[in-house]
Every structure is written in C-alpha cells, then in structure tokens.
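Service request form, structural biology core

Requester: graduate student, group of Dr. S.
Request type: structure prediction, single chain
Budget code: on file
Notes: please return the result as structure tokens.

Sequence provided:
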Amino acid sequence: MTEAVACVAELIDSDGVHQLTPINANKLWQMESHAGLREIVRSSSLVLPEWAVVWAARVLGRPIRGHIGGIMLFENFLPVAAQRHDRLFLLGARPHVVERLHDQLTYRFPGLQVAGYHHGYVSTQQEVGLIDQIRASRANFLLVAMGTPKQELWIARHKHELNVPLSIGVGGSFDVLAGLKADAPTWARGHGLEWAYRLAQDPRNLWKRYLMTNPWFVYRVLRERVLAY
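Core staff response, request fulfilled:
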C-alpha cells in the first residue's frame, strides 16, 4: 500500500496524462468479450489487483505482493493528497451522493482542494460543457464513479481533453466514501469474502453478477493452472 500511494503521487506529478485501473474478477470477465476495455486495462499506467486477482496469481505461481482495493487505496491516499494540497475533481454517482462526498472530504481533509464535482448522469450533449468544467478546475486528480466499463471508456475517450494528470475509475466507491453505504468489514476485506458481504447488502442487483462471474473466474484460473503443467 505504501508503494501504491507513492506511485499515485508520482503519476500526478509526472508529465502527461495517466489512467489507473483497479481490476477484479468481474472486470476480467468483462474484458474477455470487450476488446476496448481489455486494451484500456493493458495500457493503464497502474493496475490495482484486488483480492481475486491476488489469489489467482498465487494459484498460477505468479504471486502478487498484496491486495489493494480501490477504496482502500483512496482511504490511504486522501490524507497524503491533503498534505500535498492536491486538486481533486469528483465525477459520478447520483447528485445527492457526490454532493455529500464533496462535503465529507472538505470537512475531513482541510488541505485537500475539491476543485469541482458533477453527478454521473451526463448526456452526450452535456459532455462538452462537463469537459470544459473539469479542465477549468485545474484538477490534477479525477475520480470517476460510473461503473465498469462505462467509467474506463469515458476516461480513455476524454483524458487528453481533460488535461488531468491522473484519472481513476472507482465504481461504487462514492457511496462508501460519502458514508452512505458501509464498506466491507475487516473479516471480509482482503480475505476473498467482500463479494459475499456486498451480495448480502444488495442481493437483488448483484446476484446475477456473482452467479456468472465467480464460477467463470475460478474455472478459468484452474484451467490455466492445469494447462500450465
């Protein structure tokens, strides 16, 4: 985590524009049939392995040093960003969620400059104005919460227009960071049980995702192990 936080700071301070992508079993499942998403992940400046990817790498004899969830990273980076007086733009979620997150971050991290925010319900006609708003904010750090693959595709399509050094797709993290939804507890986080906790919280919307994704992922990992030997 210390290295990941340092890497985020380095990317913000470096030249050019960068995209950071957390990756889990669901995103790998989507990548198999979505060439655009696959290319975005492979070309990202930094890829964050969540627990399923760490487990798979160990099974395949290619161990990754640690689990770094997207929310975990930003909980660790935001205090650093406040010390550095970074300028953050928040894009995504419902209007009341992103407004509450703006208020929460401003209160919790006085040194952090929340340069602007906008909800995630943006029509094609509104995109030009939104891009101008983000560029005018002079943010050096952009969080986009639109869900996969929409957020990754949006960042990749517009990152050079935005002129923001680092952009990250963070899925449903805004609800958690805003305090509107509980994050996975310690017994689940980093132990491969976050999916079970989230499923229990929202079975109606998540049952299909996990029913399809988890068996596919385990099968693909074990098949790869068998083929490798």
